[in-house]
Amino acid sequence: MNSNNRKELAHWVVKQAVSDGADEASVDLANSRDIEIEVRKGKLDKLQESTQNSLSLSIYANHRYSSHSTNDLRRESLSRFVSEAVAMTKYLTEDEFRYLPEPKYCQGQKQIDLKINDNSYSGLTSEDRVKYATEIDAAAQAASPKVVTCTAGFSDTYYESIKVHSNGFEGSNAGTVFSAGAEATVEGKGEGRPSDWDWRTYRFRKELPSPEVFGQGAVQRALGKVGQEKIETGKYDVVIENRAASRFLGNILGPLSASSIQQKRSFLEGKLGEKIASDKFSWIDDPFVPSGLGSRLYDGEGLATKRRVIIDKGVLKSFYVDTYYGRKLGWEPTGGGTTNLVFDYGDKSLDELVAQMQRGILVTGFIGGNSNSVTGDFSAGIFGSYVENGKLVRPVNELNISGNLMEVMGQIAELGNDPWIYSAWRCPSIYLTELQISGA
After folding, report:
1. Please, what are the domains in the chain?
2. Is the pLDDT of residue 112 over 70?
């Protein structure tokens, strides 16, 4: 089924829903192809391919709402599917806030090429995929005699989607995603078997580096954990590595949502316009980053996306507001989910940030943890390296970082110049001062 046929089918389903008694309806038609390769010890361990066509239908009837999905796109089946969906919706409880986004919020989409679709995708063969993963594995095995095991992988996705609302909105999207990397385990001290990974995601196949980058990178990171130990409890300066920073910043995403505000589950309630972080910290949601993994012209509700400053030099400027909770709060919708997160980056590399520390910890990863969205209190396990006089001294683990997010965000001293561009969260390394660390 080509894109024109899918678009025509989406419009047909919307008309069917209205004809069957829905006041409004929206349809999302999606198809995707996903391929995943894994290689271990030079042998193909996994080859998985899936192709999926799906239709999601949202029904609004007398301020009642329901959502339904199916993979059967035959019209005779869809006709029954739609009529049953509408009939079931009428049994639900009425909710005055349930109706489609007003058309004005869906208008004004930017007419730009986001550069998220690799036109050469169709030329990628299974042999290409296996060869690349095999070379990653070989590079890891050759990186050190201490390698115990390694899993190398390559995956790619092509997707298309069409969205149609009964009140006039229509949008379409298509893109590609390529991921590759390795996870390696090495011999440690005693019975220890430290492991680590190097895995990255791209929009275009040509952006992939040589396989050696992944294989050697995973092994070197694993070797860097050999001899991990605890350090004394106390206050330390901390640098969180870019690829781990999203785990830290993710603690404030939930409290930034309108649903959390409306349900009294956010420590940021009432803080709009107030300082909630260091003036070194700005958080921008930018859906128009070329080749960004979160780039899009409209969101999941069909709202036209816009570049928005969420936190400006420490001051809270905006929340993530979907239409439903926006109506409950009496707020204008801004979009309920993130696109690409970018920041006001600094001018120092990770190495330069570490060199500034007299006594501190380079955090390269988090383990578990919890965060209270109501109070802002959080704690998490961390591992990385102990730093003295700007030098990495020894690997450390079994440590715990804790505090209150409002206070800790105020302790951000500097952001690095090294955004992790292999994610929609393009976080840099973050330098924080005087954090409480629990250890030995």
Report:
1. 3-29+52-99 (3.30.160), 234-438 (no CATH)
2. yes
